[in-house]
Write a structure and sequence with these properties.
By secondary structure, the protein is of the alpha+beta class. 19% of the residues lie in helices and 42% in strands. It has two domains: 64-123 and 132-181, Immunoglobulin-like; 183-283, Immunoglobulin-like. The two termini are 29 Å apart.
């Protein structure tokens, strides 16, 4: 059986999430995975098709644009001048949302500008009828050395096409307490996907953004635990941003892709579970 236990565990988690956030049609994607995983010895996947699909299982459901914030940053946080701050936000959406952190007194203007830019980009690229997939995105906002002027509201903004969700944190800076700023800072992964669903045959980008001083060393490991390199991975490219691009994704790409960062004696990693969706599963 091609589906390893760790992948099965991920699928079960996604099924539970699907029931809460999306309804039964995504659940069918994921429960179908165990059947698809029963491949014959030649490696040809056994693609199961349902004779009768429930009313909710419609292609139009996959065209519905939405995003939700799953994990909110704290409502407020008090910190000392010179300290280090991390604010965390997790979102989910269809298509995969972009996460932005807004500061200042005009968050509505900033969000409208980002929304307008997103719509212009979509218009320039043309209207696509292909499902773009969905994902859960984890984002962290970092201030390495807090200053008095950093006090104010910080907004986590999730943008999926024309749908926007925001969550605010009030950052309170205590100027009576002063911490010493460090010239060096530990590596922090600020953006990645916890999981990603995408159509087979398409190109997918798995983000991994990191900050730290000195600049951390970053590399990826594929779903079989091998380090991604141009010599051994023709379809995999680590982009200058740190993101992993996989072209023409296939069923055998299903599994955990791990981004690792190293700085001195410190090593951190995050994992993205990639699930390639059979194109027939999105048809009416």
């Amino acid at each position: 059986m091609r589906l390893c236990l760790s992948s099965l565990a991920h699928l079960l988690v996604l099924v539970a999430l699907a029931d809460v956030a999306l309804g039964s049609y995504l659940t069918l994607f994921l429960t179908n995975a165990s059947s698809r995983a029963n491949a014959d010895q030649s490696g040809t996947a056994n693609r199961v098709k349902y004779n009768a699909k429930p009313a909710a299982w419609k292609k139009k459901n996959l065209r519905t644009t939405w995003t939700k914030i799953l994990q909110y940053p704290p409502d407020s946080m008090e910190v000392a001048v010179g300290s280090r701050v991390e604010l965390h936000c997790e979102v989910i959406g269809n298509p995969p949302p972009q996460v932005y952190w807004l500061t200042g007194n005009e968050p509505e203007r900033q969000s409208q500008e980002l929304l307008a830019g997103s719509l212009r980009s979509e218009e320039a690229s043309g209207v696509s009828t292909q499902w773009e997939g969905l994902s859960q995105v984890s984002s962290t906002y970092v201030i390495d050395c807090v200053r008095a002027e950093d006090q104010g509201l910080k907004y986590c903004m999730s943008l999926s096409k024309n749908i926007v969700q925001t969550a605010a944190t009030a950052l309170l800076v205590n100027s009576t307490k002063v911490a010493e700023c460090n010239k060096e800072s530990q590596p922090t992964i600020t953006l990645y996907h916890s999981w990603r669903l995408a159509l087979e045959g398409t190109t997918v980008i798995l983000p991994c953004r990191v900050v730290g001083q000195p600049t951390p060393y970053l590399f990826w490991m594929d779903n079989s635990g091998k380090t991604v390199s141009p010599a051994t991975h023709a379809r995999h490219t680590v982009l200058p941003s740190g993101d992993l691009q996989i072209t023409d994704i296939k069923w055998e790409d299903m599994g955990d892709f791990t981004c690792k960062v190293q700085s001195g004696y410190t090593e951190k990693s995050v994992t993205t579970f990639l699930y390639p969706v059979c194109s027939e599963d999105t048809e009416e």
